[in-house]
């Protein structure tokens, strides 16, 4: 048996993800022309999304990463821990946070405050997946949204459950028996 058997339904195919990346990359290119943004990937979930997205960003940019944690199993703890900080100074810079999925808004809210304290010129967020806004605990303004997805536990293309399933080339709904 393969891990693909643990998926009940494909939510986004490889083709659909590629089209989203192209659309978002073209918009980011226009919006950041002449600005050289720092794209900050949130580890580990955003790795595949960021790697594919930047192929379509046709302007000068830099990359950096943060590793933050606020989840235990399938639930957000509400407490955000910074496990790896940026290696680049962001003072006076345009920062584009690259996130795999926006759910509660807790993690992003903490990161935004953290970066504002460091006196960034601007902060925007790009996410591949956006859960319904009414499910958020904290309001977060997400400028670039790949697609909205319904409730359900999704994995693949960087998203995980217990560090598994990140290597699927698509995004799928995990069968409840694997995370309940």
Blueprint of the fold:
Blueprint: E1 7-12, H1 14-31, E2 38-43, H2 47-53, E3 62-72, E4 75-84, E5 94-102, H3 106-117, E6 122-130, E7 144-148, E8 154-155, E9 171-174
Parallel strand pairs: 2-3, 2-5, 5-6, 6-7
Antiparallel strand pairs: 1-9, 3-4, 8-9
EC number: 2.4.2.8
GO molecular function, one term: magnesium ion binding
Protein name: Hypoxanthine phosphoribosyltransferase
Describe the structure.
Its EC number is 2.4.2.8. Its cofactor is Mg(2+). By secondary structure, this protein is of the alpha/beta class. It has a single domain, classed as 3-Layer(aba) Sandwich (Rossmann fold), CATH 3.40.50. Helix content is 21%, strand content 34%. It has three helices and nine strands. The protein has helices at 14-31, 47-53, 106-117; strands at 7-12, 38-43, 62-72, 75-84, 94-102, 122-130, 144-148, 154-155, 171-174. The strands form two sheets. The protein has a six-stranded mixed beta sheet, sandwiched between helices. A three-stranded antiparallel beta sheet has the order 1-9-8. A hairpin with a 2-residue loop joins strand 3 and strand 4 (75-84). The longest helix has 18 residues, at 14-31. The two termini are 20 Å apart.
Distance between the ends:
20 Å
- Overall pLDDT: 92
Q: Which strand-content bin applies to the residues?
A: 25-35%
The figure for the number of domains is 1
Backbone CA Rg: 16 Å
Give the low-confidence spans: none
Largest sheet, in brief, is: 6 strands, mixed
DSSP helix fraction: 10-25%
In CATH, the architecture is: 3-Layer(aba) Sandwich
Query: What is the spatial order of strands in the main beta sheet?
Result: 4-3-2-5-6-7
Total beta strand runs: 9
Quickly count the helices.
3
CATH class: Alpha Beta
**Content-based structural category:** alpha/beta
What is the H-and-E element order?
Answer: EHEHEEEHEEEE
Shape: globular
Q: And the CATH topology?
A: Rossmann fold
Enzyme class: transferase
Main location: cytoplasm
Subcellular location: Cytoplasm
Pathway: Purine metabolism; GMP biosynthesis via salvage pathway; GMP from guanine: step 1/1; Purine metabolism; IMP biosynthesis via salvage pathway; IMP from hypoxanthine: step 1/1
